Amino acid sequence: MARYPTFDEYRKRGNYQDGLKRCDDLLKKNPHDVQLLILKFQLLSAIKGDAQPVLDQLASRQPPILDLGDIISIEDAVEISQRDDYPSPNSAGPSVAKLWDNAFKASTSMNHRLDLLSLRFSRAVVDNRLADAQQALIQLKALQPKNRVVYMAHAAVTQMLSTANDDLSARLALLLARKAVTDKFDADDALDCRVPGQIFALQASQKDLESISDTRFKESKQVYEALHDGNRKEVNGDSAPQAEAGAASWDLSGIPSLNQHFADLTKSSASLDTVLAFATNSLQLFHTASTSTSDPRGRGAADACFLSISALTRAYELSSDQRYLLTAAFSAEALLKHNPHIHEARLILIYLYMRLGLGSLALHYFDSLNIKEIQHDTVGHVLFTNLSLTHPHITTVKRNAVFEPLKRLSLALAMYTKHEERLAETEASVLNHSQTGMLIDLRELRDHLRLSVTRRITYLEQRRTARLLNNALGQAAAPMGPRVLANWTNIVDNRDFAAAFDFGYNVERVLYEQDGSQPEKPWILRALAADSAWCLANGHPTLVKDVDALVSELTSLEPSLDSLKLDGSEASVLHVEILAGDLANQTLRTLLHLASNDPELPQAAAAMLKALERLPITELVSKEGVLAEHLTAHYNLLDVLRTVLKTSKLAGEKAKEQHDLFDTARKLAEEHCTALRDHAKEQSKRVSAAAVREYVQREERLKDSMGLLGDGNLADFCQAVAASAKEGWEGVTKIN
Amino acid sequence: MSSIRPMTPMDLLKFNPCNLDHLTETYNIGFYLDYFTKWPELCKVVEGENGQVEAYILGKVEASPYPAPVEPYDPGLKIYQKKFPNYLPWHAHITCLTVAPSARRLGHATRLSVTLEEVGDAQNAWFVDLFVRVDNVAAIKLYKNMGYSIYRRITDYYNDGSDAYDMRKPLKRDKQRKTVRANGENIKVHPSEVW
């Protein structure tokens, strides 16, 4: 038979209909050709045609398909066709199951049957098809009824399939677990016996847990947590120094009490004056500790410094006065001069500098922490959130070394794929290594990484950085499927907000949040809208297929937009983000109607223009800050305005009836861009070390205690801060 | 109150208090999964009140990948002391023992090491050993206080060319304490002689 193109070749050219015609022509001569039928299935799936009859034909073929390569090809084709289904199906379906079953029944060799089922199981695990994995295990159990590794794996997978404690899977898992205990599986020293205990713990079956308390079945984290929850077992020996009752004393021995004292201050909503008094005393204690030779735990200076940072952050929370954040940064820098190895200080400096818009300093400290691998998911958020709106450009972090935000974001994203693959591989090979007690934990970690909010933030930041720098889209990561909105908003939060210090007041969260809320679903929706609008305006596929759903969800999310203003309050930083998000959303809506040139286009365009007019550009460019105030607003608005310009140009060509409206929008967007860039240029010239110093020292209540940390140090600090702010503003001027 | 429990893959999301420290390396996930798969009973954490990992230990039990030159292995035999001092019989090894800086001097390292020694005894190991940088004075002192001694010095062991001390503590099987020796810091070996 003549050679015909492969599916990949049709996919590259996009001529699926040609492929279908050719398939049908060839099938007339060879109606049962497996390869042709697989190709037809793939082509029909690609155009969302009715591919099921072809699949049924393959499954019912006589004689049945026995070649494992063909079965795998069919299963792969089904898996690809399901890629954008949400939630992801946990089975390839009955037709594929029939193919495996037919091959199994036709095999007469025990070894071949075992290999077939093991292959079916491992493929199902890697593809996240738990129901198929369970089926393979059931058949393996029937073949090897005495194999307790298979038994345990089956119990674990059955538990993983349950969604509630009273559903069928949960009840079956419990039965399997109890049988393992009754039949004393733990007498086999070589067997991993964790699964039954894990099932009892996950189903909160207290009586069963008690029955295994003196057996090997209990040796898992889940059982440990269930037995010790709220009643942690004390390890023999020391515990961390506890606060003593009575007045706090401002010396090294009093630090545990001071921790408690500060926690009490925040709980009782102490006034700004009280908090600042605490900050002052803490700074003085820090100075004392850093010159003391008596410090039994070696953490006195660090703890005192962290107390001062906590108090200063609280002062900022009460007043929105950035001087308190600057003072906190100064004391952290002083701590690192005293001891460069205190990683908590480096971490908190990243939070502080990102909050202050001083991106180059944040990049420097992130680089110095040498964050690797899975840490990108747990602490990557500290830098990556709004990195594209703070410092998308390359910066020098040390002599002969630069930090490239785009490259670093790409590296962080690559981690997820590698980790998911390795986790899947370990899960899939459980029948070889026999550690069935890992299955539930591996699955949990896989899910956490797959649904991670940091992953989504990093992905959107990477794309925004690329488009701000006019980098080719090809540098962006491959699509993170399924390509539906729900995949972006059903998230799991692995962000670690306990990696620095916490004296009853979580500084990390306060510094990361905007107006009391963390970048999460609303942030993702706004960033997605901006990204999707840019994609449509430039003829690229969007990250989500259901863009209409994105528009609706963002529209319903936003508050009354007319009440948002830039009034210098902390909240107004978020307000600009909301208004930029609204503009992105209206632009997206316009592009959708433009594509179909439908009657709602004029209304959508008018809404886009209104969103444009609502932007507080005049207020923004009238601000003469000392640092990088509202720097992120500049980048955010420029990003969306560039898309508005592109949209207006596109619409001008396609929708001539709305020419005037789009021309007005184009001119206004151009004016706004010019105003923002000019303002950034002025700011970059205005920033100076002297101005920073004068600004900081205007807060009289902290002047003396800051002076204790060294006048020369303060001068250097102001110099570095000014240089960073200048670099930030100069970056804005490069966005064209 | 902090407590010791088994370490699991999910703990990799909670170990920043330890792993952000400059002396603790963060490896690719395969490294950790290898330990969880092969030696789960030798992977433990100390969990703090807030659920963070304050300390953890990763260990293994193994022997040199070739038969004992003279069987049965007896560390008291002169041939093992003179001719085959680098042969490693069945033993436990501490690959990684790390404590968050904010949780040091609370006894976590000792407790974790003891749990590993208990597993080593249960598996009939001769001793526990570990590698430590020769300039890590604090760690060397800590291990000596726990009953470890220097067995040998491995030259150019680390990537940066630094030497390592191989420190050992005999377990119950080694009643005569023949697997350890005095003045180990003066006995230098090349990494190629170490398995």
TrEMBL record, chain A:
Name this protein carries in UniProt: N-acetyltransferase B complex non catalytic subunit-domain-containing protein
**UniProt source species:** Neohortaea acidophila
Answer whether the UniProt record assigns the keyword Transferase to this protein: yes
The record, for InterPro entries, names: NAA25_NatB_aux_su, TPR-like_helical_dom_sf
Keywords (alphabetical) are: Transferase
An example GO CC term for this entry is: NatB complex
Q: What does the similarity note say? A: Belongs to the MDM20/NAA25 family.
Q: Which domain of life is it from?
A: Eukaryota
What is an example of a GO molecular function annotated in this UniProt entry?
A: transferase activity
Automatic annotation (TrEMBL), chain B:
What are the entry keywords? Acyltransferase, Transferase
Q: Which residues form a coiled coil?
A: none
Name the Gene Ontology molecular function terms of this record: protein-N-terminal amino-acid acetyltransferase activity
Keyword flag Thylakoid: no
Domain of life where this protein originates: Eukaryota
Q: Where is the N-acetyltransferase domain?
A: 2-172
Has UniProt tagged this entry with the keyword Transferase? yes
What is the official name of this protein in its record?
Acyl-CoA N-acyltransferase
Native source organism of the sequence = Neohortaea acidophila
Q: What is the lineage of its organism?
A: Eukaryota, Fungi, Dikarya, Ascomycota, Pezizomycotina
